[in-house]
């Protein structure tokens, strides 16, 4: 098909539409024409510095959201929990972002919905990564240090692989561009998902070979690895890709491949579990030893239109206008999307410290300040349309005093954690008949959880962390085998990674998504007019190969640029 001006326009918006101060700001740099010219003139360390600046422009895309870039609305991994039994839409009732309700019914249209932004931002990441790759291939002689060249190349391949995986999960068959030479009338292939996964694998396999570990990033290059792709991040992402392929039966992928990737990360000694689960999603828990890939967020106090902040946290932090009691000065209100469900709440075992660190219920204290004259309890009206489940997402809570504006949260995005790697290794080990090893990895996760505390500031009169759990009967070690062991691994994945955007893809690759539809539809008062069977019929109408679910390709792409629409969606 022919993809003409859309990608040229995309570059104009995302590269040329930013303010001058963003173009020159050092922490989140962006390439100007002068910078491109320098690439042809620089050599040695100067060339490396210029490429790093270009690379940072590609990393910036991970933080693109509404109010930051023209033509971009809300999107992000967290949103896809809303299409599962883990979360309902939330926000300010049914009229606030109604396309999210259409997702839950699998009846969204190509002309509406945040999936359009996901498509745009996904390709922004691809285009910027391609820009780095093009310049690296053209200017290879400018970088005499082979290790530096490989590092830069590996980071760019990781970014491209990440965003193509994001696009493929959401849209199935998407146009594939491997160059930034975006020419009028040029034909671009639109591979089917099976072929797209092969292309994504190729990028990530190369990235694994080229990228340094976290320690090598510091020792060999003098670079802080925070917010950058490393070998471990590429291996973890590649393991995710292969697990999806296994679920779809694509490309003869095996659990041995997943096992080798995950256990290599474990043996590397680069990562460990943080001692207290409650610390992970706090400011002091950022870029911890558990972080495999984490995107830095900064509050530059720029107001609406500023870049670098994490708007997703504001989107999902409790909407405190629903509380009958919110006088405490430490309470900072968000917009209340991604509401945990009763089904998720009930999944947690009795006494599991991860439950209060994941879900806020009525009567909980959000951030205690230790001052008796203020009260930080949240009292949720059970009849409020803004919180029909009665629960909010604790992992998105805004710590006091809050950001300088709604899009300026400085809480980082945790995209890959070491606990996920352990659970990936457990699942792979199980499928390879290594049940004792699978139990070992699961119990590492449970041991940490058992010895954790409640959330910071959640105890009356104590602005710090409550005492850690000392009840040894909480979360006993898993001793199961066979099908019961696999069920235990799936349970642990759900509760450990809840509200982090994994649930939809796990359900799909396990072949359990339709069961989840039957659970979540009757519980959601905002979509009660439709039956689970109707939603399942809608869902099945959008499958590629009878197994790969898809959201609609944006209408403009289909009408004006010849992109083939996904099954079951109108082409006009």
SSE inventory with pairings:
Layout: H1 5-16, H2 20-24, H3 33-41, H4 44-59, E1 87-90, H5 99-105, H6 115-138, H7 146-171, H8 193-210, H9 214-221, H10 231-248, H11 255-267, E2 291-295, H12 311-316, E3 337-340, H13 342-347, E4 359-361, E5 391-393, E6 413-417, H14 418-431, H15 435-450, H16 482-496, H17 503-510, H18 513-523, H19 532-540, E7 543-544, E8 548-549, H20 555-561
Antiparallel strand pairs: 1-3, 2-6, 4-5, 7-8
Describe the structure.
By secondary structure, the chain is mainly alpha-helical. It has a domain at 311-530: Serine Threonine Protein Phosphatase 5, Tetratricopeptide repeat, CATH 1.25.40. It has helices spanning 5-16, 20-24, 33-41, 44-59, 99-105, 115-138, 146-171, 193-210, 214-221, 231-248, 255-267, 311-316, 342-347, 418-431, 435-450, 482-496, 503-510, 513-523, 532-540, 555-561, and strands spanning 87-90, 291-295, 337-340, 359-361, 391-393, 413-417, 543-544, 548-549. The chain is globular and about 65 Å long. The model is unreliable at 1-31 (pLDDT under 50).
Task: Briefly say what this structure is.
The protein has 572 residues and is mainly alpha-helical.
State the share of residues found in helices, binned by percent.
40-55%
Q: Indicate the radius of gyration in whole angstroms.
A: 23 Å
Count the E strands.
Answer: 8
Query: Might you state the CATH topology name of the domain at 311-530?
Result: Serine Threonine Protein Phosphatase 5, Tetratricopeptide repeat
Q: In one word, what is the shape?
A: globular
Report strand order across the widest sheet: 1-3
Total DSSP helices:
20
Question: SSE order in H/E notation?
Answer: HHHHEHHHHHHHEHEHEEEHHHHHHEEH
Contiguous uncertain segments of 5+ residues: 1-31
Structural class: mainly alpha
CATH architecture of the domain at 311-530: Alpha Horseshoe
Largest sheet: 2 strands, antiparallel
């Amino acid at each position: 098909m022919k993809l003409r001006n859309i990608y040229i326009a995309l570059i104009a918006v995302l590269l040329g539409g930013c303010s001058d101060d963003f173009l020159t700001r050092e922490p989140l740099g962006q390439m100007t024409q002068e910078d491109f010219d320098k690439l042809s003139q620089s050599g040695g360390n100067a060339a490396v510095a210029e490429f790093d600046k270009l690379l940072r422009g590609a990393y910036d895309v991970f933080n693109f959201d509404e109010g930051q870039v023209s033509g971009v609305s809300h999107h992000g991994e967290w949103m896809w929990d809303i299409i599962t039994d883990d979360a309902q839409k939330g926000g300010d009732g049914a009229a606030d972002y109604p396309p999210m309700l259409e997702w839950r019914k699998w009846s969204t249209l190509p002309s509406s919905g945040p999936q359009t932004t996901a498509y745009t931002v996904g390709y922004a990441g691809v285009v910027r990564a391609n820009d780095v790759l093009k310049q690296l291939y053209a200017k290879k002689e400018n970088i005499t240090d082979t290790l530096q060249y490989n590092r830069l190349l590996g980071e760019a391949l990781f970014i491209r692989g990440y965003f193509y995986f994001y696009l493929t999960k959401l849209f199935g068959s998407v146009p594939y561009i491997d160059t930034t030479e975006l020419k009028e009338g040029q034909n671009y292939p639109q591979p089917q998902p099976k072929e797209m996964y092969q292309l994504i694998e190729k990028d990530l396999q190369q990235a694994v070979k080229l990228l340094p570990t976290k320690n090598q990033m510091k020792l060999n290059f003098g670079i802080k690895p925070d917010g950058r792709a490393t070998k471990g991040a590429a291996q973890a992402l590649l393991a995710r890709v292969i697990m999806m392929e296994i679920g779809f039966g694509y490309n003869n992928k095996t659990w041995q491949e997943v096992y080798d990737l995950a256990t290599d990360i474990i043996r590397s000694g680069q990562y460990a579990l943080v001692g207290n689960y409650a610390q992970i999603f706090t400011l002091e828990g950022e870029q911890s030893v558990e972080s495999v890939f984490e995107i830095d967020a900064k509050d530059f106090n720029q107001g609406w239109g500023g870049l670098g902040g994490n708007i997703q946290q504001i989107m999902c932090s409790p909407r405190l206008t629903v509380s009958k009691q919110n006088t405490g000065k430490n309470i900072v209100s968000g917009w209340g999307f991604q509401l945990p469900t009763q089904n998720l709440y009930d999944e947690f075992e009795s006494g599991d410290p991860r439950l209060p660190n994941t879900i806020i219920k009525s009567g909980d204290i959000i951030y205690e300040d230790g001052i008796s004259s203020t009260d930080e309890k949240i009292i949720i009206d059970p009849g409020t349309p803004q919180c029909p489940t009665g629960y909010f997402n604790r992992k998105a809570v805004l710590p006091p005093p809050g950001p300088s504006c709604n899009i300026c949260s400085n809480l980082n995005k945790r995209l890959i954690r070491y606990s996920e790697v352990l659970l990936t290794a457990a699942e792979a080990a199980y499928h390879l008949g290594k049940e004792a090893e699978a139990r070992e990895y699961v119990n590492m996760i449970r041991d940490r959880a058992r010895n954790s505390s409640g959330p910071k500031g959640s105890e009356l009169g104590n602005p710090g962390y409550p005492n850690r759990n000392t009840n040894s009967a909480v979360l006993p070690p898993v001793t199961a085998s066979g099908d019961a062991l696999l069920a235990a691994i799936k349970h642990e994945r759900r509760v450990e990674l809840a509200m982090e955007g994994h649930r939809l893809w796990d359900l799909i690759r396990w072949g359990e998504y339709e069961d989840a539809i039957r659970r979540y539809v009757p519980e959601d008062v905002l979509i009660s007019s439709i039956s689970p069977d109707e939603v399942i019929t809608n869902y099945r109408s959008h499958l590629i190969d009878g197994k790969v679910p898809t959201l609609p390709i944006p209408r403009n792409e289909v009408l004006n640029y010849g992109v083939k629409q996904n099954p079951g969606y109108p082409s006009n």
